[in-house]
């Protein structure tokens, strides 16, 4: 029964969240249409403007049609897999995005893994040794980590480890060899993970601290259950719930940080693509990117919701409300 | 010097809280014994230190709380000298502790049976998982849960009484010889309370365990405990057997407690009350703990901290005992007196409820009928009680009366006005001048950021009192509820529970109402303070000719304050009539069961039999 | 005694007297407040009292390391880094303040309103909040700001919009907790008008959360704003803004590292101080706790 309920739940969530993505693309579309001259102006930057050429271009990009027609045309193309062509490089948008997607996913996944695998244990250690040196140190580092913006962290890491200490390569993603790749990606992943790591540590610490004082933990102690067992069986699962509920924000934070990290480390991922297309007002690319980002966020949210329902038996699939 | 046959022996225990800089006493010089197979009660109000005492024995003290001195021996072994590892081996296997709130004692993410199998498998001789779960089911059956599926359910799927049984089974999983139960029935309904207490007694006998029952209710202690220790402000004031303490208390505090809990079988003409607020140990250092509130206090009581003295085989910490012994006896006899039944006045109804129904939309389409066609009335100047347990709908009715909930069906008229009008969102404002409400929890029914005067003035302005007259009126109200007018400038956080409730009552009186709807106004207060506030209610009624709709689960209390009573069960009125008649000669099965469940009200009864008969 | 669960929300009020404040503040918070104070003063009057000009270019003295004349050296156009840091205090403080202050006002009105009034108000507000929370904020901001032409004030406007959703949710949660407490119900029974209940009873009791949010939003806004500037989207070219200083001086990282490290340190220092204070307020005075008995 749970399997089927799960499927229904996932289906319903997807149905609810897709309109969100569409709304965002509409918003961006509308904004883009406000740029003076639109796509055409971008293409013709620096070139002399011959009215005939302008008119031809406007025809080609359907700029003379009413807005909603343009949007629907774009949407129609999307459903066929055609996201248009970049006005800066002329390559197909979908190709540009797909070729860079893997890298950004690597970066994000690596960052998330690192943040979780270091952040959760740190939070637990801080909570169980509360008040003493270790706790204060961890809390201090956590606050520091969550205050420093991604681009500064990335810059500092780059400067210290790559430049001064020459431990890691400066730019690029390395070859296909796993070892080399890891070596190249290590710094960017760490830079990306620090902020979320700090946050996860803080949340874990706070929720473990809260749980340790709860009656059911006290009762377990009164029955002679060992501290270790209490930690693992009683505290841990409960403590992870707040993390799951803020996981959505965490993933978004990671995505946002990717932009800066890719820029600074010169990694050809989606983030860097976004920056360059935004600076060059590459409208088709921007629209395509926003769409992809929207889908990414939707999928991430659905995944998180499912994990939450699986962890907490109190929440049935029918009423898994935020 | 200790007796080898004592299971648990505590001598001169001092416990304090060492906070930032300041240190607060919690327990001082507590001496206590538990023999094998005995049930011992520890009775105390808030601040008495009873819960900390339990945690000290188990060495589960919260951070900052430390043992200052004294010894705690279990089977002759000093528990404080054990390392944490060794102590852990004692916990659960030799002595165990369970708490008050069944809703938080079990981990919400673990199945009920798990809490039991965990203990079973930790013992010597490794049980397989299958065998452990089978045994868990058997253990639950031992405690009255026959349905084997319960073990596989999660705590949130069970009722309070069932959770408490699961917790008990978990605590007993390793067959300890000593069970400390900290207010095991307090968070439950009266009928469930009786069942759990009975269960404890049965278990204790069948397993030949010792049980320490911690409670604030003397009568609860009397039902199942052999001996009782009376704890106040961190010290033991009296020790004796249940029978002895009940028939002849040898300490003014014990007497006061007995008097503060009104009897259910008669109405008292005069409610004897202990003045003042419950003291914390630091406030009464170096003198008799009870002296600030004692009626018989003399200079010698303030000179030293009286030790427990042996008198006629019992112990009491009252230095003046020989002088006042006869006084105590006389006062005790007063409780046995009976007042004449009140005359029922049949006047026009000031509150009239006709076929009130309230249905709450529930989850997954299942709706809950909280109130089902209830009709009741309150006459002008009359006081009426609404009695029931949780789920009876009594609180919902009260909320409908004052406009916090809108009825699904039915009509409510107060003072001749319809409370609700079809189309409008809020109630008829004229009703607010006639009926007001006093809430249950004084700790959260006052805005913590408003001074007493600000809270009262806000209401007075609302009801049209002129600015110039406000201060006087505030002082007048405070005096009416028994508070000094200087309290006007205080914040609620600086007041005790009883004082806060008085302020809440004063606030309700700002609109000069004719009817007060009181929703369990005493349940959140300490026992000794309850009687004070109950007396206040009586006085106010006489002085201001108020009517009450008094909602409570406590039949003894209701008897002291109302003339007529309605008994509610699952949203319906199952019985009504003059309070003496309903309580002395109940007709409905539920009313009978309710009365039978009252501790002390039916001592000697076989509660299980009664309950079984009713359940059918 | 069937005790009701005596509900557990700490009164979110702040201590009034300075004396009690001084006694209860740990050293780290005191330091943080000091730093904030200094930066505020510099933001207010720095530009006028600082002897060195932040915009004067000395093209013969480009990217010079720290010396007696230039404490932190010079940047790519020979401008004094220290002076630029001081001048940058203004934009570092004003923008985030506007954003967090607007967040305070909007979240208190909408959060308390949605919580107390319920019904349509609540549904619409929460749909809006859920929608906004599902968006990858900064990315969308990047897109909008750039399409809108960029610049400091454009960035502030857009960030104001994208800042409120988290706050509204937190404030609404806190207001809901208060709403279910008896003292609010008592106020309703007594007939106290709705607006008064919302803003004279609920608002003061969630004030600690509001102030804590203010601080944390400030830090987030600072980071976002400088991030945008770093990407070239959030400030006028040439203006002494810490974020754009960072990206400008990245190229001279090896000649004068302080050109980039100084603004980085400044951003982190301010964000850290404000975060510390915000966290502390949240821990001490707000969040879930118990009524003082």
Task: Report the principal-axis shape of chain B.
Answer: globular
State the helix count of chain B.
21
| Strand order, sheet with most strands of chain B | 6-7-8-3-9-10-12-11
Largest sheet of chain B: 8 strands, mixed
Distance between the termini of chain B: 54 Å
Instruction: Tell me the overall shape of chain A.
Output: globular
Total count of strands of chain A? 0
Percent of residues of chain A in helical segments?
A: over 70%
Structural class of chain A: mainly alpha
- Rg over alpha carbons of chain B: 26 Å
Query: Would you identify the CATH architecture of the largest domain in chain A?
Result: Orthogonal Bundle
CATH topology (level 3) name of the largest domain in chain A: MetI-like fold
Average pLDDT of chain A, rounded to a whole number, is 79
**Which two protein chains have the largest interface (Cβ within 8 Å of the partner's Cβ), and how many residues from each?**
A-C, 42 and 40 residues
Mean of the pLDDT scores of chain B?
86
The unreliable regions of chain B are 602-616
Query: How many distinct helices of chain A?
Result: 12
- Tell me the helix content of chain B: 25-40%
For the biggest sheet of chain A, the summary is: none
User: What is the CATH top level name of the largest domain in chain A?
Assistant: Mainly Alpha
Which short descriptors sum up this protein?
heterotrimer, A: 322 residues, mainly alpha, MetI-like fold, 2 domains, 0% strand, disordered C terminus, B: 616 residues, alpha/beta, eight-stranded mixed beta sheet, six-stranded mixed beta sheet, 22 strands, globular
Overview of the molecule:
The complex is a heterotrimer of chains A (322), B (616) and C (293). Chain A has 322 residues and is mainly α. Chain A has helices spanning 2-34, 38-43, 51-60, 67-79, 93-128, 133-147, 150-164, 178-212, 215-222, 227-265, 270-279, 283-311. Chain A has 2 domains: 2-79, no CATH class; 94-279, MetI-like (MetI-like fold). Helices cover 77% and strands 0% of the residues of chain A. In chain A, helix 6 (133-147) crosses helix 8 (178-212). The longest helix of chain A is centred in the C-terminal third of the chain and has 39 residues, at 227-265. In chain A, 40% of the residues are buried. With 616 residues, chain B is α/β, with parallel strands linked by helices. In chain B, strands 6-7-8-3-9-10-12-11 form an 8-stranded mixed sheet, with helices on both faces. In chain B, helix 17 links the parallel strand 19 (515-519) and strand 20. In chain B, helix 10 crosses helix 17 (527-544), helix 14 (452-462) packs across helix 15 and helix 20 runs antiparallel to helix 21 (607-615). Chain C has 293 residues and is mainly alpha-helical. Chain C has 11 helices and no strands. The radius of gyration of chain C is 23 Å and the shape is elongated. Chain C starts with 17 loop residues before the first helix and ends in an 8-residue tail after the last helix. Chains in contact: A-B, A-C, B-C. The interface between A and B is medium-sized, with 23 and 33 residues.
């Amino acid at each position: 029964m749970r399997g089927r309920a799960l499927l229904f739940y996932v289906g319903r969530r997807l149905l609810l969240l897709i309109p969100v993505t569409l709304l965002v693309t509409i918003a961006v579309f509308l904004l883009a249409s406000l740029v003076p001259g639109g796509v055409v102006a971008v293409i013709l930057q620096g070139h002399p403007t011959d009215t005939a050429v302008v008119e031809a271009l406007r025809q080609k990009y359907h700029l003379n049609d009413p807005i909603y027609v343009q949007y629907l045309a774009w949407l129609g193309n999307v459903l066929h897999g055609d996201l248009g062509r970049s006005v800066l490089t002329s390559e197909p948008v979908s190709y540009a995005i797909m070729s860079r997607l893997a890298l950004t996913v690597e970066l994000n996944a690596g960052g998330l893994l690192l943040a979780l695998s270091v952040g959760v244990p740190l939070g637990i250690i801080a909570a169980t040794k509360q008040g003493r040196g270790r706790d204060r140190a961890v809390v201090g580092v956590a606050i520091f980590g969550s205050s420093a913006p991604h681009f500064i962290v990335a810059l500092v890491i780059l400067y210290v480890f790559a430049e001064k200490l020459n431990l890691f390569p400066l730019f690029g993603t390395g070859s296909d060899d796993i070892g080399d790749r890891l070596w190249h990606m290590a710094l960017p992943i760490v830079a990306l993970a620090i902020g979320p790591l700090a946050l996860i540590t803080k949340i874990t610490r706070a929720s473990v601290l809260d749980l340790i004082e709860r009656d059911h933990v006290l009762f377990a102690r009164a029955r002679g259950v060992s501290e270790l067992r209490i930690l693992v069986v009683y505290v841990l699962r409960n403590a992870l719930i707040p993390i799951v509920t803020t996981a959505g924000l965490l993933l978004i934070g990671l995505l946002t940080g990717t932009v800066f990290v890719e820029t600074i480390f010169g990694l050809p991922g989606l983030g860097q693509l976004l920056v360059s297309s935004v600076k060059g007002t590459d409208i088709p690319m921007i629209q395509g990117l926003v769409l992809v980002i929207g889908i990414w966020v939707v999928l991430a949210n659905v995944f998180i919701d499912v994990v939450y329902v699986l962890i907490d038996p109190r929440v049935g699939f029918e009423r898994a409300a935020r | 010097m200790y007796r080898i046959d004592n299971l648990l022996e505590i001598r001169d225990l001092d416990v304090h809280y060492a906070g930032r800089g300041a240190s607060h006493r919690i327990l001082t010089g507590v001496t206590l014994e538990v023999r094998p197979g005995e049930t011992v009660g520890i009775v105390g109000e808030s601040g008495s230190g009873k819960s900390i005492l339990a945690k000290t024995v188990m060495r589960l003290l919260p951070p900052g709380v430390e043992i200052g001195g004294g010894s705690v021996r279990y089977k002759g072994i000093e528990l404080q000298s054990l390392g944490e590892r060794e102590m852990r081996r004692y916990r659960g296997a030799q002595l165990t502790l369970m708490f008050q709130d069944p809703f938080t004692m079990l981990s919400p993410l673990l199945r009920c049976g798990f809490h039991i199998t965990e203990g079973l498998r930790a013992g010597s001789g490794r049980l397989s998982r299958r065998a452990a779960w089978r045994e868990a089911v058997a253990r639950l059956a031992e405690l009255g849960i026959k349905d084997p599926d319960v073990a596989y359910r999660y705590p949130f799927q069970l009722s309070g009484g069932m959770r408490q049984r699961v917790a008990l089974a978990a605590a007993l999983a390793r067959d300890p010889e000593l069970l400390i139960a900290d207010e095991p029935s307090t968070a439950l309904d009266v009928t469930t309370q009786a069942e759990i207490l009975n269960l404890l007694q049965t278990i204790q006998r069948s397993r030949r365990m010792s049980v320490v029952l911690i409670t604030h209710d003397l009568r609860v202690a009397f039902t199942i405990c052999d001996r009782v220790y009376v704890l106040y402000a961190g010290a033991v004031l009296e020790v004796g057997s249940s029978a002895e303490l009940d028939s002849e208390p040898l300490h003014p505090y014990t007497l006061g407690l007995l008097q503060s809990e009104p009897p259910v079988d008669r109405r008292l003409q005069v409610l004897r009350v202990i003045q003042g607020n419950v003291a914390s140990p630091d406030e009464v250092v170096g003198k008799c703990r009870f002296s600030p509130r004692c009626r018989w206090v003399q200079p010698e009581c303030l000179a030293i901290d009286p030790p427990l003295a042996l008198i006629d085989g019992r112990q009491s910490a009252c230095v003046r005992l020989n002088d006042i012994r006869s006084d105590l006896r006389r006062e005790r006899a007063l409780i046995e007196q009976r007042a004449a039944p009140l005359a029922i006045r049949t006047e026009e109804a000031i509150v009239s409820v006709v076929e009130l129904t309230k249905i709450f939309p529930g989850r997954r389409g299942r709706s809950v009928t909280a109130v089902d066609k209830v009709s009741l009335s309150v006459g002008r100047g009359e006081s009426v009680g609404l009695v029931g347990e949780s789920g009876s709908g009594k609180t919902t009715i009260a909320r409908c009366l004052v406009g916090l909930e809108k009825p699904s069906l039915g009509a409510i008229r107060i003072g001749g006005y319809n409370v609700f009008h079809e189309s409008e969102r809020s109630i008829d404002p004229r009703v607010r001048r006639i009926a007001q409400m006093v809430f249950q929890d004084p700790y959260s029914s006052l805005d913590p950021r408003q001074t007493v005067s600000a809270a009262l003035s806000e209401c007075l302005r609302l009801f049209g009192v002129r600015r110039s007259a406000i201060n006087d009126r505030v002082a007048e109200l405070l005096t009416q509820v028994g508070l000094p007018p200087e309290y006007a400038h205080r914040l609620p956080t600086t007041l005790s529970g009883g004082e806060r409730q008085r302020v809440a009552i004063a606030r309700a009186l700002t609109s000069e109402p004719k009817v007060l709807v009181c929703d369990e106004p005493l349940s959140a207060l300490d026992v000794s303070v309850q009687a004070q506030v109950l007396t206040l209610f009586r006085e106010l009624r006489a002085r201001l000719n108020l009517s009450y709709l008094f909602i409570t689960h406590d039949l003894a209390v209701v008897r002291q304050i109302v003339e007529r009573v309605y008994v509610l069960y699952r949203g319906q009125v199952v019985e009504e009539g003059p309070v003496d008649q309903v309580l002395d000669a109940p007709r409905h099965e539920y009313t009978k069961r309710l009365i039978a469940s009252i501790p002390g009200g039916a001592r000697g009864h076989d509660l299980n039999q009664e309950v079984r008969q009713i359940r059918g | 005694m069937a005790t009701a669960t005596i509900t557990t929300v700490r009164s979110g009020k702040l201590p009034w007297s300075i004396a009690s404040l001084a006694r209860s503040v740990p050293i780290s918070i005191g330091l943080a407040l000091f730093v904030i104070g200094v930066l505020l003063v510099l933001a207010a009057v720095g530009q006028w009292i600082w002897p060195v000009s932040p915009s004067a270019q000395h093209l013969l003295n480009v990217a010079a390391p720290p010396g007696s004349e230039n404490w932190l050296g010079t940047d790519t156009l020979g401008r004094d880094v220290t002076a630029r840091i001081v001048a940058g205090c203004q934009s570092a403080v004003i923008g985030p303040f506007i954003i967090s202050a607007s967040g305070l006002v909007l979240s208190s009105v909408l959060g308390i309103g949605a919580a107390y009034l319920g019904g349509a108000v609540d549904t619409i507000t929460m749909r809006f909040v859920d929608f906004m929370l599902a968006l990858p904020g900064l990315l969308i901001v990047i897109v909008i700001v750039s399409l809108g032409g960029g610049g400091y004030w454009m960035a502030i406007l857009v960030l104001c919009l994208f800042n409120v959703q988290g706050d509204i949710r937190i404030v609404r949660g806190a207001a809901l907790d208060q709403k279910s407490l008896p003292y609010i119900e008592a106020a309703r029974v007594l007939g106290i008008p709705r607006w008064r209940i919302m803003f004279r009873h609920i608002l003061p009791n969630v004030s600690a959360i509001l102030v804590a949010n203010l601080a944390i939003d400030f830090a987030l806004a600072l980071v976002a704003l400088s991030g945008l500037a770093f990407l070239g989207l959030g400030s006028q070219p040439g203006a002494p803004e810490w974020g754009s200083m960072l990206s400008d001086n990245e190229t001279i990282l090896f000649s004068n590292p302080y050109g980039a490290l100084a603004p980085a340190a400044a951003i982190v220092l301010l964000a850290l101080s404000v975060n510390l204070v915000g966290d502390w307020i949240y821990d001490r005075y707000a969040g879930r706790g118990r009524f003082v008995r």
